[in-house]
Task: inverse folding
């Protein structure tokens, strides 16, 4: 199941989303949680990913350790994304982990843990300068 998840995420793009790639990974009632969202149901998840990938220029994942115990999977990852609204379109790298719970060979819970500041706030034009200035002052 770990390889299936990793291969699916490496294959997600606007075209594969139209072809229904998420239906091969998630249950109909799948729950998705990250620092910005909490959503329920495969149709909602498909709509979210379609909006998200509409503006993504490039996205790559590299995977670290992954552990599977029963229906639980924990996976470390690094994501590099290029999006026109983040860091003026330059690559942004984010480290994170995901907890998956599976049922009948599909993911029914997907919970991402990552630093929202590293992902978004530090990479927005105005807010990013403020966040980085605060972080520098905190480190003194």
Result:
């Amino acid at each position: 199941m770990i390889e299936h998840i990793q291969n699916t995420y490496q294959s997600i793009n606007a075209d594969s989303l139209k072809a229904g790639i998420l239906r091969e990974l998630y249950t109909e009632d799948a729950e998705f949680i990250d620092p910005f969202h909490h959503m329920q149901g495969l149709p909602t998840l498909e709509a979210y990913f379609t909006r998200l990938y509409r503006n993504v220029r490039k996205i790559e994942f590299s995977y670290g350790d992954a552990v599977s115990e029963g229906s639980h999977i924990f996976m470390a990852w690094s994501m590099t994304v290029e999006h026109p609204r983040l860091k003026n379109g330059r690559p942004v790298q984010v480290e994170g982990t995901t907890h998956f719970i599976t049922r009948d060979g599909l993911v029914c819970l997907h919970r991402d843990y990552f630093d929202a500041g590293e992902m978004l706030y530090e990479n927005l034009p105005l807010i990013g300068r403020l966040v980085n200035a605060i972080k520098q002052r905190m480190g003194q």
